[in-house]
Every structure is written in structure tokens, then in C-alpha cells.
Amino acid sequence: MTELIAIFISMALINNFILVRFLGLCPFFGVSKQLGSAVSMGVAVTFVMSIASLATWLIYNYILIPFDLKYMYIVIFILVIATLVQIIELFIKKTNAALYFAFGIYLPLITTNCAVLGITLIVNTVEVYSLWQSVVAALGAGLGFTLVLAMMSGIREKLELANAPKAMKGLPIAFIIATLLGLAFSGFGGMI
Amino acid sequence: MGNFMKEFAKGLIITNPVFVLALGLCPTLAVTTSINNALGMTLAVLIVLLGANTIVAAIRNFVPSITRIPIFIVVIASLVTMVDLLFAANFPDLHEALGIFLPLVVVNCIILGRAEAFASKNPILHSVADALGITVGFMLALLMISSIRQTLGTGSLSVFGFHFFTLPILGKQPIAILVLPAGAFLVIGLLLALFRRTGVMKSD
């Protein structure tokens, strides 16, 4: 149990996906201008990451390894993620229309989000977690992603009103803010 | 030939993938801790982008538009698998250093972006020129960022074991934050601001 908690904290804070591992930067700089849409995006990504980790773990350990097809992992993982995103989209559309509209365009975009492929690669090939550890790691990573996305969007809402130098406006100042957030998160380094 | 050069040149500055289009940021930030890694990533992107653009341009008239994205992704994923195996066999150190960012080239927006926006609408020769131009633009950006981070962050500059120089004061006390993750954001943010200030790039 303590091991699962350690994995969760490590994935969410110490090795935060955006600020430390540099995964999922496109939504970080692209959509994080409104708190609401940032949180929707974060929840959608967390959801897909957890299911994708579960699915790829099963496929990797019960199909790819027994049949000696490990080298196919890149093609298989991306296809699994693309298929999952399609299925989840259809499922949500049929069962919960309000949620479907809340996710909006973010759901299809998740296929090419490197955080999702990133977590499947990390749990299967880098850390080689067990099934439960993989799901917990994906949940932690997703929540850490959501947290930083929400923080960044809150800051950027204020930043629109700030009097930044002309050359710094927009993307450059967002990078500087990310630096400061990154420094703050490096403080979590000694936690475990 | 004039067209070839035009398509090549536009990738360098006008549509520089990193600084102008802000695509492929994840590998850009992650691998620029040293020039070695930056060059390794460039080589991977070169092989995959050249292959993807050529294949996509070659099959562009046979692919039904409704299934084109999955087809492009499978083409790209196969090429990345080849590069992954190639690097693991020939450059094990580099393969180790790039880590998951080598397989992650699959979801690098530069590659799918060029396949979709350019190669699926243009003949093979132009698509090859586009791939080369974009890769050189990517390399320039990566080299710029990684040389700053490596030189100031470690106090010395060496590429593939060949030592160039050690800075006088920074050699003993380097600005270590620059090789940390936070430093990557800082260097890119300052470079972007510098390009806008000097007029190389337009402000928002």
C-alpha cells in the first residue's frame, strides 16, 4: 500500500508530467487560458491515461511478451490509444450528452497528446510496473497534469491584464511562468 | 529547382517548427540538456519526417480522405519503430539518453502536422524539400537552446567526446538551474522574447 502511495505522489508531484518530464506541453501552452477548459482537459486526459495504461498493460504483458512481439510496442500502443479515444468518445456521446459537450474538442485531441503515450511507455517499458501500480501511476500522473494545467490557466487569466514588456507578451511570458512553477515543483524533490 | 529551394528555405525561419509554430515542444525541452542529445533527436526526426513525407506524398492520391489520419499515424509509427531499433543497435548510449522521447516522436506534432498540412497535398519532391527544411529549422532551434543550456549550465562545451572549451568562472560554478527542467522553460522563453524584440519574429 505504501508503495502505491509513493508511486502516486512521485508521479503527481515529484516527477510532474508537465514541469519535470515535459509531457503534454501542447495543451499546457495551447488551451490553458481559461480555468474551466483547463480542468475539463485535465479530467479527460486523466481518464484516458488510466484506461490506456490498463489496456496497454494487458496487451503488452499477455500478447506482446508471450508472442515475442515486443518491438511492435510503438505501433500497438498508438493504435490502442487512438481506438480507445474513439470508443470513449462514442460511449460518452451516447450515455452522457452534458459531459460530451463539456469535453468538446479536447477528447479527439488527446490521441496525439504525448502525456498519454508517455504514461503507457513509462509503465510498460521504463518502470515495468504491475497492473495496479500502472493504474495508480496513471491516475497520479493525470492528477498532477490537471493540477499544473489548472494553476497555469489561473495565472494566465490574470496575466492578460498584466503590463508585461511588449516582446514578452503571450508565449514568452508563459514560458517564464512555467520556469517559476518548475522551480517551485523542484522543491518536492526531497519528499520521498 | 527554384521551388525546391523555396520549400526548403521556408522551414528555417518563416515556419520554424519550434519558435514560430510552437510544435514539438516536448522533445525540444527534454533533449536540449546537451548538444549530443539535440543532434540525436534531430537525426531521429530527420529519418522519420523524410520517410513520412515521402510515403504520404506517394500515396496521397490513393488514400481516402476519411481514413487518412489513422493511415498517416501507422506510417509514422512504423518509421519510428525502425528508428528505435536502429538507434538501439547502433547508438546505445544515445538511445538510453533519449529514453521515451524516441518512441514519442510518433506523437510529435511536427511530423503529423507536415504530413497532413503539406505532404498530403504536394508532390514527392516538394515534400522532401519541406521535410529537409523543417528538420534544419528544428535542428537550428535545438542547437541554439542546447548550446546555451550546456555551455552555461555545465560551464564547458564538448560534443561527442570532443572538448571545445571551459568557461573561466562558470567552469567551477556553473548556472546549474539551466540543465534542470525549469531552465529549459527559461531559456526558450528568453529566446522567444529576444526574437520578438529584435524583429526576427512578429509579436502577438
Description:
The complex is a heterodimer of chains A (192) and B (204). Chain A is 73% helix and 0% strand. Chain A has 192 residues and is mainly α. Chain A has one domain. In chain A, α3 runs parallel beside α7, α3 runs antiparallel to α8 (131-159) and α7 runs antiparallel to α8 (131-159). The radius of gyration of chain A is 17 Å and the shape is globular. Chain A starts with a helix and ends in a 6-residue tail after the last helix. Chain B has helices at residues 2-10, 25-31, 35-59, 68-90, 92-98, 109-119, 124-154, 181-198, and strands at residues 156-159, 162-166. The longest helix of chain B is centred in the last third of the chain and has 31 residues, at 124-154. In chain B, α3 runs antiparallel to α7. Chain B has one domain (2-198). Chain B is built from eight helices and two strands; from the N terminus they run αααααααββα. Chain B is 64% helix and 4% strand. Chain B has a two-stranded antiparallel sheet. Chain B is globular. The model of chain B has no long low-confidence stretch (mean pLDDT 86). By secondary structure, chain B is mainly α. Classes of the chains: A mainly alpha (192), B mainly alpha (204). The A-B interface holds A 19-26, 29, 71-75, 78-79, 82, 112-114, 117-118, 121-122, 125-126, 165-176, 178-180, 182-183, 186 and B 22-23, 25-27, 29-30, 70, 73-74, 77-78, 80-81, 84-85, 99-100, 103-104, 106-109, 112, 177, 180-186, 188-190, 192-194, 196-197, 203-204.
Report the order of strands and helices of chain B.
HHHHHHHEEH
pLDDT averaged over residues of chain A: 87
Approximately how much beta-strand content do the residues of chain B carry?
under 5%
Structural domain tally of chain A:
1
Question: Structural class of the secondary elements of chain A?
Answer: mainly alpha
Shape of chain A: globular
Query: Uncertain spans of chain B, ≥5 residues at pLDDT below 50?
Result: none
Residue share in helices of chain B?
Answer: 55-70%
Question: Strands of the largest sheet of chain B, in order across it?
Answer: 1-2
Strand content of chain A: under 5%
